[in-house]
Amino acid sequence: MVRQTNYDLSQYHKLQEYKKYYALNDVGLTNKEIHKIKNSYHKENLSTNKDSIIAYSIIGYYKDRIINNLQKITNHKTFTKKDITALLDDDLIKMVKSDDNKLFHFSFDAKVFGVLFRKQVSILYYDDYKWNKGKSIHSHKEKKTLYEFYPNSYNTIDTIHTNTGVNYVLFGHDKVRGNNFMDHISLYTYEKGKLVHKFNYSLAHEGDEYAIKYDKINHVIDVVYTPNEKYATSIDCYCEEEEIIKLYNKTQTLKRCAYSFKFTGDTFELVD
User: Fold this and answer.
1) 3-state SS of the chain?
2) What's the pTM?
3) pLDDT of residue 137
């Protein structure tokens, strides 16, 4: 299954969302897969003679296969016993995991055309079951949790231990286009069989310097950045110099915003 996933990722990586059609013989499919597509896809997805398929449709085909493959891999009873990050092609899919080997994050390009910030297929998986010998993986499949959503990717997962359980801090710093970057940080905990999203903060900015930094010892999020006209209208701007930000183009005065969030035992709150 890992080999098949790497193959599907390699074929998916070659696809371009701005193309109109792809010849079915040129997208890495077997004759059996081509026959199935010709006889199951709606006519609007295929060319008149059924030898080509519209680009977004074959992108969706491979995207679904990769997600389904990851579902099977994460549900396998040996999943947490092997280093999945060493098995999947890290040039094609980004992977991070928590120190307790419980929370895993996978992400790859969503190939969505015309979006300013390129979206990622982002899958967060939590392993909540300790496998016993002789147990069927199918009978306990519902014990596994796999989430799919579309934020940017994550670079690290840190943990915060409290009396009520483990909290996970996920941080990402992504180049989105040109000299534009997106920093984002989220807090999750696992309660009653599901992941609970407790906090999220993101900031688009120019330049590769990190605008968001996380102090994992004191559990403090520090935000420091130089605002500009493009990103000054963020609804999450806590900078005290907001009036100066609005006049940024007129004054040509560089001001740096700085504020912090501190973990309270349940979530992160803005420091007064």
Assistant:
1) CHHHHHHHHHHHHHCCCCCCEEEHHHCCCCHHHHHHHHHHCCHHHECCCCCEEEHHHHHHHHHHHHHHHHHHHHHCCCHHHCCHHHHCCCCCCEEEECCCCCEEEEEEECCCCCCCCCCEEEEEEECCCCCCCCCCCCCCHHHCEEEEECCCCCCEEEEEEECCEEEEEEEEEEEEECCEEEEEEEEEEEECCEEEEEEEEEEEEECCCCCEEEECCCCEEEEEECCCCCCCCCCCCCCCCHHHHHCHHHHCCCCCEEEEEEECCCCEEECC
2) 0.82
3) 39
Per-residue b/e over 190-227, b at no fewer than 16 CB within 10 Å?
beeeebeebbebbbbbbeeebbbebeeeebebbbebbb
At residue 102's C-alpha, the angle toward residues 96 and 105, to 5°, is 30
pLDDT at 58 (0 to 100): 95
Distance CA 89, CA 85 (A): 8
pLDDT in tens, 78-129: 787 777 778 888 899 999 999 998 999 999 999 886 555 678 888 888 887 5
Structure token digits, residue 209:
């310097």
Are the CB atoms for 12 and 66 separated by under 8 Å? yes
On whether the CB atoms of residues 100 and 91 are closer than 8 A, the answer is no
Write out residues in the chain with pLDDT < 50, as ranges. Answer: 131-140, 232-235, 244-245, 247-249
| Single-letter residue type at 77 | K
Residue 52 forms beta bridges with which residues? Answer: 23
* 99-132 exposure pattern, b = at least 16 Cβ within 10 A, e = fewer: eeebbbbbbbbebeeeeebbbbbbbbbbbebebe
